[in-house]
């Protein structure tokens, strides 16, 4: 085992000169003050030269600094590891031999010191950080210790290479699969080409017979229609002249009706203005009426209060009169008493009479008695006057008590009245609030409705303006063509006859998704663009019969159940630069959308639309299969090779989509106009809103007055009464207590006075003893009492009289003051009632004036309504006459239209015949069929295709005339067709031929166009497949090689990490138990990813002694420190360093845990470990084998010094207090 013997430093940081630290024992403690140089810390410097002592203050002690580590093994062989700083570089020496940095690290690793892992150092605060590490950080710590992190870069590199090799293998596998399929396809295309050419030749021959039959039948129909047309044109001219005369008469009737209608509108405008004025007048009248009612109610309340106060005044005046009468009665009683007293004194005053000598002697004795009892007499006199004063005060307080009781009763009555008034006002206030809330709710609802109406009106006006602008731009008001009007009438009739099965024209239910596709869609739709869509073939035949009966022109029908819709080729959607035509056509109908989509699929088929003619031609003819394409300008490329260009007639037909927009705008305009009319009617409800606002304002005013009065009562009157009652009650309580105290005091003083009088009486008895015997009385008091008793009785009666009079006068004075206040209040109330009555009269007068104004407005409105009724009757009469004339003109117009329809029907039928002949000739020319002409040439035929909707122009008529000069040789036509007579037989024959051609074309359609370049392509495909196979084999070999290399690196990394983790997880529990000194303690390490543990986290859980399981975050600071130390010692046991430096690991530990930790360290140092601990706690460093004291001194700058003490000679005393823990105390 290698251990640290000494540490030599020279001019390193705070250590000046050469300093030897050591020798180090098994268990060493370093102590010292902060900043003295004892700390283990990272070197936080910018340049290496800053490590030289004094360099940080610009005074380096030398040019070099050196640190040497002197280690010894079990055989006492020393090894010195030295690192020197020279300038701004480092030098490394082992046993004074210069070595490289890599060799230096390698030698350190041999003795167990791993520089990257720092497995010999635990910095200050590291214990707390280890306890708080998350699972990923613990994994990184173990990876550094196990040195498996050195394989991480190679692991990631090999893994990325393996993934890349697998992707390349999959890529070449897919290419190989595609090349195999392509080879099979090329070999099959060669066989299909021969079959395809034979089928084309057969179809061409069938087409020739069909075209000859159709031309032959067409020429026979043209000659019959020319004869019918002349007769119908003459009848139409005669009917038109009669219609012109009737229309002039109708125009004059329209002018008269318009004049009357304008007058009616003017009257209606005046009525609306008058209604507005009436609404304002009504709201003002309602407001005035509400205000008047409020003032009436206030006046009534004031009168009632005045009456109540008046009654109270009468009651108080009666009480005052009664008090005066009582006072007079008391005075009369006193006078009667005085007279009676004088009479009794006269009657009994002469019982005992003294002579002059006796009277003189009595006076002398009296003076003598007075001199002897002067002190007692003075005391008795003083007490007598005090008792008398107390009795007067007591009587006064008793009178005040009665007055206060009367005042409390009066104020309680007043408080009850005010409280009842407040309750009534609260009820009235609540009713006003509920009414006001109802008004506000109605106002909010109506305001919101009107606001929505105004907003909607603005929106409608804006939208209507936009619609009108669009209509103006599109010239919507131009007259519809006769042909369109006829078609519209026919469609309306058919819908009425078959409402559920006749859907309408195709153009009404679909449209291009953008205007740029209009020409292309119009070209492909062709004769179907105005076709009528029906539900079934039966409905279509019924509609045709109806048209024949009504003599309508020919129309095309599309029965949905009769259509043979071919499936779409979904692969065409992926063709670059083109879109399927069905994708640029949108269904605008809300109902039967799926059935209408079926019709669009039937017409469009697999047609493609391209941006330019060049792209359309390329897609149509240059691919493996021919496709039907159309350019945006309307140029159509058919599969058969037929090319039909766009023309001015096509642009005219394409306007149909704009006309649809025009029709939609018309309908939208009508909807907006109707909605605007409804919104104008809603606007008239503003008068109701004004009325509600007026009512709400009235309720608000009443509520304001009621609240003000209620607040005045609650804040002033009621508190004032309550305060007065409270004051009087407290005064009454004080008076009661004072009266009680005064009564007690009077009793005590009377008793004392009686004692004094007894003493005086005894003294007087001794003085007057002889005199009393002489006059024959028992005591002198008998004589005196005869005279004094009467006087005392009289004084008592006088006192009672005076008290009674004083009380009555006070009560009368109080009642007089209350009466005066009541009179002032009555005067104010009288003035208030008068003011309210004047205000009420003014409001009533204003209300009557507003009522007169409302009645005048109603009268004027009634007159205008009567005038409006009269004008409406005139307008109605004019309208009836106008309708009669209009009906007659309409009937005549219908007759003319019927004749015109018959003419146009004939013309259209003739045009259709010419058109059909033209299209047949063009088709023959385009298809290059070998037809024989007796005169003329096919080169004279225009190459432009015309459809059923092409308008008759000079150009088309010129085409028809030139084509009429052509004479066709029908000798090649089969004889069976020429002998047919009826239309049904001809159509049946042609239909059979078409079915035969259709079956062949169906077969051709289902037969894909072969690729005639398949032979040339075969060799290219084989070479391509061979190259792909070679690349696939090479990629497979590379993947296998990368997989083997990755597995090797993975196994190496897994082995290194697992060996470390298994060791640590096996020993950590025992170490934790030993540190805690308790077998119930548990420490568990577990990995999140067992397959590759270095990619996941490591969970560390501890169960402290005597506690339940808790997560590491819930442990106390000391428990976390013990757990972290257990983990550190377990990791250190896997790759032990020759020494282990711990910097203040006991910072979070108490004395008990420090004792446990030092015991564990001493046990470990006895086995195979050398530990150096930096600690400032005596409980820790007192157990060490050696104590190293670091201190600092100052010269030019601070430098560190060291003192080493060997503590082994000093024994440890074991103390056992009967507990599970042991404490070692070093005896100094």
From TrEMBL:
Residues 500-620 form the SMC hinge domain. The keyword Nucleus applies. GO terms for molecular function: ATP binding; ATP hydrolysis activity; DNA binding. It is found in: Chromosome; Nucleus. Residues 243-270, 408-463, 718-849, 875-909 form a coiled coil. One of its GO terms (biological process) is sister chromatid cohesion. Transmembrane segments: none annotated. The keyword Iron-sulfur does not apply. GO terms for cellular component: meiotic cohesin complex; nucleus. InterPro entries: P-loop_NTPase, RecF/RecN/SMC_N, SMC, SMC_hinge, SMC_hinge_sf. Keywords: Chromosome, Coiled coil, Nucleus. Pfam families: SMC_hinge, SMC_N. PANTHER family: STRUCTURAL MAINTENANCE OF CHROMOSOMES PROTEIN 1B (PTHR18937:SF147), STRUCTURAL MAINTENANCE OF CHROMOSOMES SMC FAMILY MEMBER (PTHR18937). Belongs to the SMC family. This is Structural maintenance of chromosomes protein. It comes from Betta splendens.
